[in-house]
Write a structure and sequence with these properties.
Elements: E1 4-10, E2 13-17, E3 19-28, E4 35-41, E5 53-58, E6 62-75, E7 80-86, E8 95-100, E9 103-104, H1 105-115, E10 129-130, E11 133-139, H2 140-155, E12 159-163, E13 169-173, E14 183-184, E15 190-196, E16 204-210, E17 217-223, H3 225-231, E18 235-239, H4 246-257, E19 261-270, E20 280-287, E21 290-306, E22 309-318, E23 321-322
Parallel strand pairs: 14-20, 16-18
Antiparallel strand pairs: 1-2, 1-5, 3-4, 3-21, 4-7, 5-6, 6-7, 8-11, 9-10, 12-13, 15-19, 16-17, 19-22, 20-21, 21-22, 21-23
Helix pairs in contact: 1-2
Length: 323
């Protein structure tokens, strides 16, 4: 059991707030914002306001969430209010046009953060220089995700952007997002497991682009005959720009998508503050007499805190998993 403290306010006026019932923090992946929802006691000089800063602490110093109130549902007769707060990644929903030339992913993130007054942690050098990319009236999240995808396709390194609760945007490689917090029968209360080739599973990747000089369409392809024989042809078809190494991209996408997608739902896992959308967690479970061991990525983590008890519900995905 841990002591949790919720602080709400602005400037020098900060209130130590009483939480009524369960507080939840939802932390998805793919440049989506974390959100906190709670019902709080009001009155005695405290009424939450839109734009107030919300900070949730575990113990004296560990911050689990930092964000801004975007929605309030007051119930004055009960002297309480329901609040919805987002971390600063909520501002990545803003749209803007960027022409990116000769910049790395970390440099693009730093530029966007400066333009929209977002705070970042120390950003690692991501290595790959994006030669040219036009993001026309796209959300900031979409622009950053496109840069993440470009970097992955040319380096094999997957990156994720998230706010770790400190109020700073962090940029991390996926292999550095491992959390040594075992998912096992004695650490959670419920399990739901499935394996599928009905979603983003492809065993033939075909990319094309128009050659402006010759006037002909160029085709780049990668495929796996063995899985095509087992599952049939599952084809991904995409158009690529002229500045993309299309064959490298096709080979990379085949490695990524030529496998079943495994989904694992977990209820009531013992809470851990470092679990967020994008984290990798170790799994050691037996489901219907099938032993599941390996690592899966968190698609969404929903932290639940009530009366000092901290649990987390997880939706996990991945293919790199042995059964």
């Amino acid at each position: 059991m841990h002591t949790h403290t919720l602080l709400i306010g602005t400037g020098k006026i900060i209130h130590d707030v009483v939480v009524l019932g369960e507080l939840t923090i939802e932390r998805p992946r793919l440049c989506n914002p974390a959100k906190l929802e709670a019902t709080v006691s009001t009155g005695q000089g405290f009424e939450p306001q839109l734009g107030d800063t919300v900070s949730l602490y575990q113990g004296a110093t560990r911050r689990l969430f930092t964000g801004i109130i975007f929605e309030i549902t007051p119930e004055p007769e009960k002297r309480e209010a329901r609040i919805l707060a987002y971390c600063q990644m909520r501002y990545l929903k803003n749209k803007e046009t960027y022409v990116i030339e000769g910049q790395r992913l970390d440099q693009v993130l730093a530029m966007i953060a400066a333009d929209f007054r977002l705070r970042t942690g120390k950003l690692p050098n991501t290595g790959y220089v994006i030669p040219s990319l036009v993001a026309d009236a796209k959300t900031l999240a979409d622009t950053l995700q496109q840069c993440i995808d470009e970097t992955y396709q040319h380096t094999g390194h997957a990156y994720a952007i998230h706010d770790d609760g400190s109020g700073l945007l962090q940029l991390k490689r996926a292999d550095a997002a491992f959390v040594n917090h075992l998912i096992a029968a004695d650490t959670c209360t419920g399990v739901d497991y499935s394996i599928s080739i009905d979603g983003e599973t492809y065993n033939r990747v075909k990319l094309y682009r128009e050659n402006k000089e010759s006037g002909r369409r160029e085709i780049y392809q990668a495929q796996d005959s063995s899985t095509m024989n087992r599952w049939g042809v599952l084809q991904l078809l995409e158009k690529v720009d002229e500045n993309v190494n299309a064959q490298v991209k096709a080979d990379t996408q085949l490695r990524l998508y030529n496998q079943p997608q495994r989904r694992l739902g977990i209820k009531g896992l013992i809470g851990h503050p470092d679990i967020w959308g994008g984290s990798l967690l170790p799994v050691d479970l037996t489901v219907d007499d099938t032993a599941l061991r390996g690592q899966l990525m968190v698609e969404k983590a929903t932290h639940r805190i009530k009366d000092g008890h901290h649990t987390v519900d997880l939706a996990l995905i991945g293919g790199g998993f042995s059964a």
